[in-house]
Amino acid sequence: MEDTDSVAVARVKAGDGDAYRVLVDRHSRSVFRLAYRMTGNQQDAEDVVQETFMRAYRQLHRWEARSSFSTWLYRIAANYSLDLVRARKRHAETAIDETPANQGAPDDAIHALPASSPGPDRLLFSDQVQKCVASTLDELSQQERTAFVLRHFEGQSIEEISAALGLSANAAKHSIFRAVQKLRRALEPMVSHAL
Amino acid sequence: MNVPTENHLTEEQLVLYYYSEASETAGVEEHLGACESCRKAYHSLQRVLNSVDSLPVPDLSADYETRLWSALDARLGRRKSFAARWLLWKPLVIAASMAVLIIAAFLTGRTLERPSNQQKSVADSGIRERVLLVAVGDHLERSQMVLVELANAGAPATGHLDISYEQRTAEDLLEANRLYRQTAASAGDFPTATLLEDLERVLLEIAHSPSTVSAKQLEDLRKQIEDKGILFKVKIFGSQVEQREAAPSKAGAASL
Ligand SMILES: [Zn+2]
């Protein structure tokens, strides 16, 4: 797999533009999954994918064949998601006054469950859990979210994450801890008794 | 952080254990085997983290790759072929900055005949706006490449990173930038002028930095780029330009 990636890269560098399509076809869906988990929004995620492949193309001379091409792509995608969401937040903050810190969306999700729920409706329950995961991820700082997604969904080590995001190992680790803490606070009441 | 009472495992140790971060989990397994209360805590953490996996990701349509490729192809192939872009980067920049002079003159109307009637004047201003859009769009795209390269450059392994390439490119871009900024300002397009002014400061910073930078200097540079939110603005502007470009006929764009 990686071998054919480096073959495709070599062909692009030699001037064969269509060879880049091979890389796009091969990796775009997994970059999308990552981007979606980092942004929580389909349109943003699609933008991230497009921008990731643009940047990767332009920086192809920076890719070293000894690292995996997909890991390198994820790294670009992670950094771009960080920039995008941060810039957008900054933008929103200047436009609107700070929203109160205690928005409590996950709590609302829990309270939205009917008190006399007719037995453990699995579908309803898993739907609530999904919503709670999504809204808690939305409340993380973008650094926490990115570090957590890379660790949890992509199986990257703390060392790899700190390198990818230009953080110290300690900072990467604590971003992940904070993310887990927040998820735990939101999800534990839901998942601890059930199932 | 959580101070362990009676030497129980901390939440952090449990998290690292869950993710098999081996370097930090010595003795955790033994403790879990022996300690009921930590085992409970771990199971509860497991349930939470396992439930995170339930987060759904939307399905993409079957033609996703095709749509993505045509969007990329349009953006990447806007100037010449892949090969030309790849190999002729430097000459392109030089050519572009010369083209800038011509375009700028054209836009300010110096080389243009006075329109003979109202209708012609309307058509001209439409073409003129389009030419400026395309030119500025290209300029921003080139600038974006430099900023992205720097923003994403890994920490230098040798202690120093050679940025002479980005530096020279920034120098080339500066000249074009000044002209576009003046043109935009004199045409009354203040949003564009303001964006170009912000961009100019960052390009100046890059052009004036040493050709090899330490990790610290790179970080400062990166912070500059980040603080101004310039990449984001450039991207937003770029996508607006693409939309406006894509909208009506390509007559103006083709003349470039
Ligand atoms: Zn214990």
Detailed description of the structure:
With 195 residues, chain A is mainly α. Chain A has two domains: 1-103, Rna Polymerase Sigma Factor, Chain: A, CATH 1.10.1740; 105-195, Orthogonal Bundle (Arc Repressor Mutant, subunit A). Chain A has helices spanning 2-13, 18-39, 42-58, 69-95, 105-111, 122-139, 142-152, 158-165, 169-191. Chain A is elongated. The termini of chain A are far apart. In chain A, 39% of the residues are buried. Mean pLDDT of chain A is 83; it is low at 97-118. Chain B has two domains: 1-54, no CATH class; 86-254, no CATH class. Chain B is built from twelve helices and two strands; from the N terminus they run αααααααβααβααα. Chain B has helices at residues 11-18, 28-34, 36-52, 64-76, 82-87, 89-107, 118-152, 164-186, 190-208, 215-227, 230-246, 251-254, and strands at residues 160-162, 212-214. In chain B, α6 packs parallel to α8. Mean pLDDT of chain B is 73; it is low at 1-5, 78-94, 110-120 and 249-256. At the A-B interface, α2, α3, α4, α6 and α9 of A face α1, α3, α4, α5 and α7 of B.
Strand neighbour order, sheet with most strands of chain B = 1-2
Radius of gyration of chain A: 20 Å
String of helices and strands of chain B: HHHHHHHEHHEHHH
* CATH topology annotation of the largest domain in chain A: Rna Polymerase Sigma Factor, Chain: A
Could you give the distance between the termini of chain B? 61 Å
Structural class estimated from helices and strands of chain A = mainly alpha
How many strands of chain B? 2
Indicate the multimeric state.
heterodimer
CATH-level-4 superfamily name of the largest domain in chain A:
RNA polymerase sigma factor, region 2, helix turn helix motif
Main CATH class of the largest domain in chain A: Mainly Alpha
Model regions low in confidence, pLDDT < 50 over at least 5 residues of chain A: 97-118
- Helix-strand topology string of chain A: HHHHHHHHH
